Amino acid sequence: MTDPRWNSGGWDSHNSGAWDSQNSGSWQPPPPPPPSNDPASPVRPYAVTGGRTAPKVKLAMEALVSSATAEHREFSHITPEYKAISQLCLQVRSVAEVSALLRIPLGVVRVLIADMAAEGLVRVHQPQLEAGRPDVNLLERVLSGLRRL
């Protein structure tokens, strides 16, 4: 099996820093990745949550989150993840939306939002359950939305 970077003249330098047939004998390192403004962090999720995998308070993925940071003027003590969540939740969002939009795993977002709620940085509005079951109206709206997809 041949390497996809190999062509008949040598290594393709456009794919990696390897053999360049144009500059016979010279090796060039691959270019650095472009800087990213993506809020998704290259830091491992367990490092962001301090090793915790479960939130202190159980959060449903459909729970709604709104930012309460307008009441807090001091932002120097909060992490970049907290800032991103606070900014995103200036509009009410579900926990699942926050996870998807920030490209952070759902479990990590649950831990972060629970911590932020404990500090008063966000407000969490849990769905009302009747006898441990979701509201029928909510399920009908979800089904209707899925049918429109």
Automatic annotation (TrEMBL):
InterPro entries: DUF742
Start and end residues of each stretch annotated as Disordered: 1-51
Source organism, top-level taxon: Bacteria
Pfam families recorded: DUF742
Ranges of Pro residues composition bias in the record: 28-37
Bias type Polar residues, positions: 13-23
PANTHER family tied to this protein: DUF742 DOMAIN-CONTAINING PROTEIN (PTHR36221:SF1)
Protein's UniProt name: DUF742 domain-containing protein
